[in-house]
Protein: Glycoside hydrolase family 19
Organism: Aggregatibacter actinomycetemcomitans
Amino acid sequence: MLNAGDLLKAKYPNPDGVKVNYQKIKLSTHTTVDINLVADDDNTRQVTFLVNGDQYAIEERISYVNKLKEIFDYEKNYKNKLFHEISFSIFIFSLC
C-alpha cells in the first residue's frame, strides 16, 4: 500500500487542500508511517485510508472528529499546545 521512496505521498488532501508527504519509518521487517503525523495534520480521509483502506462512511467519521474536537475544545487547546497529543486519540476513536 505504501509507495516507493522515503515519503508517503498522501492520497487525500488535508482540510487546507494540501496533499502532505509524510516521512516513512523503516523497520527490520517492514516500512510504516507515523499515523500521529497524519492525525496532527487533521487529515481524517488519509487516516481512514491508512487504517481501513477505503473511505467507507467518511462523512460520518469526519462528523465524529469534528464533534470530538468541539467537546475537547480542540482548536483552543491545540493552538495553546495544551493537548497536542489528543489529536491522535480523537482520530482513532472516530474510526472505531
